[in-house]
Amino acid sequence: MLDLKKIFTEKLLAVLPESLEYDSVYSMIETPKHASLGDLAFPCFQLAKTLQESPASIAAEFSSKLHSPYFSKVIHAGPYVNVFFDPAKAGSPIVNHVLEEGTEYGSGEIGSGKTVVLDMSSPNIAKPFSMGHLRSTVIGNALASLAEKNGYRPIKINYLGDWGTQFGKLIVAYRKWGDPEKVKQNPIGELLKLYVQFHHEAEQSPALEDEGRKAFKDLESGEPDHLELWKWFRDESLKSFMEIYGLLGITFDNFQGEAFYNDKMSEAVQLLKEKDLLVQSDGAEVVLMDEEGMPPCLIKKSDGASLYPTRDLAAAIYRQREYQFDQALYVVGQEQRVHFNQVFSVLKKMGFEWADAMKHVPFGLYLKNGKKMSTRKGRVILLENVIKEAIALALKNINEKNPDLHDAEKTARAVGVGAIIFHDLKNDRMNNIEFSLSDMLTFEGETGPYIQYTHARAQSILRKAPPSYTFHGLGDEASWEVIKQLRLFPETVERSYLSLAPSVLAKYLIDLSKSFNKYYGKVRILEENDELTSRVSLVKAVAIVLAEGLRLLGIEAPNEM
Ligand code: ARG
């Protein structure tokens, strides 16, 4: 692939003082904010120090010395040497490369031979799937696809919240007040009610709490009736989660939740003992974290029951053994920051060097009218309904725009779901996001449907175009802007993963769509003349990159909409 930066670097090296090395020159090259200033720029500040001259005069001197058939112009702008590429010459190898590679374009090798485990989604059974779990699901899924595109082997683990004292309480509540028929009809709603009722009643009769704790303790030791009930709650919950995953089009490598580690915790606890890390505190066993400036990490309750951190320790040890991961990402809300810092530090104290390869990938909240969207209390938002509403709205938009579209339902699913996913991913992970269905579903503006629509527009041109084509070069400015965007796809895919920021790719897709739509507005693509095949090639290349970029974000790219 023609690397414009590389060409520029090589030409610079030929004229710069010998002390400068390829990699450092390459990494100093910038992209000017405005296309009118050129395609790439080299800043001369650092050289100025070495050469004891002003940056501007150095820029002036070097700009007159750079020549290449790929350059149409080299100028100096203040302290910068700026180069303009010849669109026809530099464009051909780029566009033809995209066409040759197809969906492979943008694939990288930084992760080859490496495994990354993603702990993602991880909703709690017997509770509604929350907006936070939605974020974890879509961010985790995009990171997994980006990892794969960069050569890693991703393992997507749905670490279901299916173990803990709350299930002891739920078992007690169900035995006292539960109705099997009601639970069958609306498992999550009904179980949530029972759980809430338990807490109400426990305020009056505190003995209930003890009953709940004991029930969990018995569950952990394998009491068969408890286990059976627990398994039923889990199956029913999973069924309703699977509907959501089905709508989102997201799959997992496994659903090994917290309960999966029930028989794997004793090993972790034993290791902690051997390393002398366990300390008694009010009857409970903890690892002190004073040195790290954190509260003690709770390992065992006074009744011997396990805790959330205990299970995460066991899970990490198991995953390292099972997958030998080179990286482990935990895509979990920022409110669990201390928990993960504790878990990682404890593993480190246990002597596991690989703990350095673990990373918490936090994210912000969803807001509705500026307030936290909550699944608790009365303000239950059923995600399934939200998704269905988005699909219905998308269908309405499609019917208005394109009433003849066949498969409108299927397309509406892709658009509705794509809108939700894109709206989440285009924001920096840590930002809070205002949840507004109408905003995320508009076809104009920086939305998923806008990019899908741009892709569908490209596909519709291709349906009318001659069937085979090659790019020979286009001289106009608008096409060159598109080509420059196409060139950036591989490095965007890499940066998006390395910075664990799907937003980098999402923003890129917006830029590519904008520059393509500008081109589309300026040029009659299907006009019969010498440049027809080049223009069609460019459209094809854009369609390839848009579809592949959307795929990486977990979004479908319908050919018509
Ligand atoms: N189930 C947890 C929750 O909803 C998230 C689990 C995150 N993953 C982990 N390994 N702790 O809060």
UniProtKB/TrEMBL annotation:
SUPFAM superfamilies: Anticodon-binding domain of a subclass of class I aminoacyl-tRNA synthetases, Arginyl-tRNA synthetase (ArgRS), N-terminal 'additional' domain, Nucleotidylyl transferase. Its EC number is 6.1.1.19. One of its GO terms (molecular function) is arginine-tRNA ligase activity. A motif ('HIGH' region) lies at residues 123-133. Keywords: Aminoacyl-tRNA synthetase, ATP-binding, Cytoplasm, Ligase, Nucleotide-binding, Protein biosynthesis. The keyword Lipoprotein does not apply. Residues 2-85 form the Arginyl tRNA synthetase N-terminal domain. CDD domains: Anticodon_Ia_Arg, ArgRS_core. Its main location: cytoplasm. It is found in: Cytoplasm. The keyword Ligase applies. One of its GO terms (cellular component) is cytoplasm. It holds the Pfam family DALR_1. Belongs to the class-I aminoacyl-tRNA synthetase family. PANTHER family: ARGININE--TRNA LIGASE, CYTOPLASMIC, ARGINYL-TRNA SYNTHETASE. This is Arginine--tRNA ligase. It comes from Falsibacillus albus. The gene is argS.
